[in-house]
Amino acid sequence: PIGSVEVSISCSSSGVMRASCSSEGDQLLYSWTLNGDPLMDGNSSIDLDEKTDGNICCSVKNHVSHVQKTIRVKPCP
């Protein structure tokens, strides 16, 4: 089974926002949506535009279970 999923957001000095998703489990597959629209799949972290605003969801699944976590994202300062 998949452990708890945590999503964190960081803003770099170059203006890139990065969302990172962490979880525990075997053979995890990650997918992302922003306001319900699919983003690039496959990685535990994803780069976003600095002006990204809305709800970002990280979905983690494997052969045993499926967990997702949604957080609110605001544009980088």
From TrEMBL:
Chain ranges of the Ig-like domain: 1-72
Domain of life of the organism encoding this protein: Eukaryota
Record protein name field: Ig-like domain-containing protein
InterPro entries documented for this protein: Ig-like_dom, Ig-like_fold
